[in-house]
């Protein structure tokens, strides 16, 4: 979240909100929570890759 917090603007608010909501998808107990955690971490990695992609700024414009 530190990377997101310092570099958001009107063009990437939706992506920032998606990244911030990742922890909300970690639910359950035991093996269910473990599965949700793995899914959430994968989703987070995908979203952060989009965030760091310099071409994203060109595509938004």
Short description:
The chain has 4 helices and no strands. With 61 residues, it is mostly helical. Helix 2 packs antiparallel against helix 3.
Structural features, described:
With 61 residues, the protein is mainly α. It has four helices and no strands. The chain has one domain. It starts with a helix and ends with a helix.
Secondary-structure blueprint of this entry?
Elements: H1 2-5, H2 13-20, H3 30-52, H4 54-60
Protein name: DUF6537 domain-containing protein
Domain DUF6537: 3-44
Organism: Lysobacter koreensis
Record keyword descriptors for this entry.
mainly alpha, single chain, DUF6537 domain-containing protein, 61 residues
- Determine the mean pLDDT: 83
Number of helical regions: 4
Poorly predicted runs of 5 or more residues = none
Judged by helices, strands and strand pairing, the structural class is: mainly alpha
Number of domains: 1
Rg over CA atoms = 13 Å
- The termini sit apart by 24 Å
